[in-house]
Amino acid sequence: MFENVQVVLADDDPLNLDMLEKMLQNFECTLIKAGNGQEVIDAISAHPRVDLVVMDLNMPVLDGYEVLRRIKQNVHWHDIPVVVVTSDGKDVATVLELGANDFLAKPFNLCELRHRVMNQIRNKRLADFARNTNAILEMEVAKRTAALQQALAKSLQTEYEISLRLGRAAEFRDQETGSHLKCISQLSKRLGQLARIPEEQCEILYFASLLHDVGKIGIPDSILLKPGKLTPEEFGTMKEHTVIGGKIMSGARDYPVIEAGRIIALQHHEKWDGTGYPYGLKGDEIHIFARVVSIVDVFDALLTERVYKRAFTPEETSSIMMDESGKAFDPQLLELFFRHVDEFHTLQQGIHTDTLPNAGITEMIR
């Protein structure tokens, strides 16, 4: 037997109400009597866990049709089963259409009444159980999802931190790359956005681009810090920084930023026409991330003074880079870059003059 069952009995005839009450008095439930339709509504409002309504159709104030309509249209009540008591068979189709769950024809007997009431209460309790179970499951899923999201965020933050530290390792080897790293990171993300790379991928590009020169860790100081022009042999050694960077970050396919960093480190000196290094990749064989980084890398390098060169003017930089369209650079990507070159120049200058916020890990991970 179910516990704490509440049944509303409604009839404007006190004798009928008393008869219903006596027929159900051994049913181990709380019986709430109502003499008109409004009292039914009031009883449901006052007892939020009503399990069943048994009511006559012909009642004052609000008739059974209106009560049934209000119950079934109320988002909080529509699951309450309603058994309609009627002496006119013509009413059955109408009340079933309005949402009645069952009906009793007058005169009714005790056995039929008990079975119909029991069936409806059982259905109601099963529906409540299913709904409560679903709510509990949804809460558990929400908690597990939140925990997974927190774990993922922590994992990404750790990956970003590693990327930043690896990038800074190269910075310590080459003192000229400090603000250069910040430029590559911010300009790469912006060009990726303009190229309609999905925002999630732009975030990966933002951090992975920090790793483009991490392979310089393996280049001797005599070559890396040489103020003059490199000999062909020295330049051959310098080119190895791409392969070294790729090896440093190999075997990390489960870590999107590190894997993207590996690709960028390997490919950011490849050229659109296939004359780059280390593998001579051509056109779309070069990953879009590496094509983006190669443009902003050269852009910043040309505009920045180095121990071996002066800083070129924006006009000179544009001329030099446009001459390499379709040669060193993806022509469509380069054309897009120069359509927004003023924005990129403002970003680049702001970073090198410290008028933009320092892109430390706290600021970089938003």
Automatic annotation (TrEMBL):
<dbReference type="Pfam" id="PF00072">
    <property type="entry name" value="Response_reg"/>
</dbReference>
<dbReference type="Pfam" id="PF13487">
    <property type="entry name" value="HD_5"/>
</dbReference>
<feature type="modified residue" description="4-aspartylphosphate">
    <location>
        <position position="56"/>
    </location>
</feature>
<feature type="domain" description="Response regulatory">
    <location>
        <begin position="6"/>
        <end position="121"/>
    </location>
</feature>
<keyword id="KW-0597">Phosphoprotein</keyword>
<dbReference type="InterPro" id="IPR003607">
    <property type="entry name" value="HD/PDEase_dom"/>
</dbReference>
<protein>
    <submittedName>
        <fullName>Response regulator</fullName>
    </submittedName>
</protein>
<dbReference type="InterPro" id="IPR037522">
    <property type="entry name" value="HD_GYP_dom"/>
</dbReference>
<feature type="domain" description="HD-GYP">
    <location>
        <begin position="155"/>
        <end position="353"/>
    </location>
</feature>
<dbReference type="InterPro" id="IPR052020">
    <property type="entry name" value="Cyclic_di-GMP/3'3'-cGAMP_PDE"/>
</dbReference>
<dbReference type="InterPro" id="IPR001789">
    <property type="entry name" value="Sig_transdc_resp-reg_receiver"/>
</dbReference>
